[in-house]
Amino acid sequence: PGPAPPPPPPPPQQANCKYTCRYRIGIENDDDFGVMKKLIGPKGQNMKTIAMRTGAKLRVRGRGSGFLEHGGAGSKREADEPLM
User: How far apart are CA 37 and CA 44, in angstroms?
Assistant: First the structure.
């Protein structure tokens, strides 16, 4: 079977609701295994598929993610927390 269709839009009274879920990856990113490469997929395909099927916005953050958080005094660095 092909990919599942995206979920229907929320009812009007819930259109402005925003939900956040965090999932810990449970392993650190390293050069040998490359969990970030596996999670994102070739050309971002795994992340695109998850977003398309769920309608969710995805962001991977934490140590090893490469996602730079805005810190004080204009600094940017990865969040000092496990990969999620």
Answer: 9
Q: How far apart are the first and last CA of the chain?
A: 30
3-state secondary structure of 77: strand
3-class secondary-structure state, position 72: helix
Task: Report how far residue 69's alpha carbon sits from residue 78's, in angstroms, rounded to the nearest whole number.
Answer: 6
**What six digits make up the tokens of 59?**
């962001």
Three-state SS for 45-58 is HHHHHHHHHHCCCC
Once rounded to an integer, what is the mean pLDDT over residues 24-43? 88
The secondary element (H helix, E strand) that includes residue 76 is: strand 76-77
Model confidence band, residue 16 (pLDDT cutoffs 50, 70, 90): low
CB 41 within 8 A of CB 58: no
